[in-house]
């Protein structure tokens, strides 16, 4: 039709139309759903997704919050203890592409509900495992990763479909704030329950109850079907009848597109590739820090003589509580400031997003290195520099996701997020807790046992994180070389 011809001949958007601003051009409103002014139900849906994301990451970081007790209960070495988180992440990342495939093609609400139910049930069951069945505890953490993957892959795409323009960036920022908030509260919950009940098993019995509430809210408040935005929705002036006709070819192409074709297309998108590797560096660091920082601080305090070694009694959980609080505070501040800085800077520079990420990674590397070096002499300074390191890491969470959403065509976004999860966890936090623990165990095995070497072994192994942060900054710098071209290509 003449209207379709006019639609195809429309000029491309200006280069400054980046981030969430680009969503208006590439993901215009529907005829049947008013996306210009989000409804109350849209916000209720986003609130439910944020709440479930909170529980998701609380459950993720329960184990690090009571790591000393678990290590003592199952009599695990540093290397074996690091494997706990590795099993979880491996399961999470290997199943993420599967859920990304289904999320682009089938009902996302059903997939989300099944994932929440599954991970809540397995977490509850893991609280009843005895010390003789340590392998079963490892298996349970792997199964929890499957449920977590179903949620983390799909939830951001629903928010991207519900909102546009500046609202989308804001809602994604709120969603990703709950990554550090949930992580920090996971430490607080685990340490608090272990201290109150004098039994660390109770830490695994709270999040399943919260997951049950999330499932009920999902059923009651989230629409059964949420219409997906596609390239056919760019036009704002065409009639409802023409818009529906324009949608059909795109929906057909989406159904016929194979997963392999999507992967090949994404592999040619250099902005997606380099930003995913930058996110991988972030995941490596956060995985290592999240698993080992409380234990590292405990060993530093033992060497200083301010804390006695825990041999039989329940281990002191103050470091987990403090680190959890730091994670919550720096996470909220970092995500908000990162989103706001990106929003302002991209008005004057199309490459602002990757350059912001690169700068924050370099600063984080410096802060983490200083924190490691001063740990034996000044524990307060260590907490301060760890806080700054986490703050600058948190700056990137929402920005990296926004990069993906404007350099990848909408009909491939679930697959892109799933692949990003796979790569970032495969090369990032799937191996970093185990790698740090293995290096620490290797150093200890080559030296006589002492409290001093127990601390040094962890300190030396942790230095790897500072170097990985530098590499991450380099990957984001490479992203800046391609982001303008890839953005224009996604618009076309």
From TrEMBL:
Q: Where does it localize? A: Membrane
Positions of the Major facilitator superfamily (MFS) profile domain: 45-484
Molecular function (GO) terms listed? transmembrane transporter activity
What are the TM regions of this chain, as residue ranges? 43-63, 83-103, 110-129, 135-159, 171-190, 202-222, 272-293, 321-342, 354-374, 380-405, 417-440, 460-483
Q: Which UniProt keywords apply?
A: Membrane, Transmembrane, Transmembrane helix, Transport
InterPro entries linked to this entry: MFS, MFS_dom, MFS_spinster-like, MFS_trans_sf
Q: CDD domains, per this entry? A: MFS_spinster_like
Q: What's the protein's topology in the membrane?
A: Multi-pass membrane protein
What is the top-level taxon of the source organism? Answer: Eukaryota
Question: Predominant location of this chain?
Answer: membrane
Give yes or no: UniProt keyword Protease. no
* Keyword Transmembrane helix tagged: yes
Name any GO cellular component annotation.
membrane
What PROSITE patterns does the record tag this protein with? Answer: MFS
> What is stated as this protein's family in its record?
Belongs to the major facilitator superfamily. Spinster (TC 2.A.1.49) family.
PANTHER family linked: PROTEIN SPINSTER HOMOLOG 3 (PTHR23505:SF3), SPINSTER (PTHR23505)
Recorded protein name is SPNS3 protein
